[in-house]
Amino acid sequence: MEDCIFCKIVRGEIPSFKVYEDDKVLAFEDINPISPGHTLIIPKRHARDLWEIPDEDLTAIHLVSKRIIRAIKTALNPTGVACVQLNGPGANQVVPHYHLHLVPRVPGGPELPVAAWEIKEGDMGAIQQTAGRIAAALKGSS
Q1: Distances, alpha carbon 37 to alpha carbons 45, 80, 89, 97, in Å
Q2: Full residue range of the structural domain in which residue 21 is found
Q3: Can you tell me the distance from the alpha carbon of 89 to that of 22, in angstroms, rounded to the nearest whole number?
Q4: N or C end of the chain, less CB within 10 A?
Q5: Annotation marks residue 38 as catalytic
Q6: Catalytic entry in 38, 46, 97, 99
Q7: For the chain, what is the domain count?
């Protein structure tokens, strides 16, 4: 995609701090990091989100994420690493190109609201109904 910032990074039109690259995947440091080592992993082929990404690109990203998270552990010794992936403007996806964030967690670092919600007992009837709707949609998509 011509005007996609991540596609421009893939094409070398915008510089990045690369940590990994192969024929399907590019990983680089986020220039607005939540913590040191905040890494983005993207497919080289444009896909807006999880709804669009081809299976082989998704697989490649997640296999590479395992290698990178090990390297983050060795290099930075974080207390944990949050893996965050957002889809669509309603989930605050800012760049419309699939990307997986690996965010090292360090003592005293900022909270990640997506990883720190209050646990409240749900309505079991509503949960069952929602599960049934999703399961039915899955059967219809086979």
Answers
A1: 24, 12, 25, 20
A2: 5-140
A3: 29
A4: C
A5: no
A6: 99
A7: 1
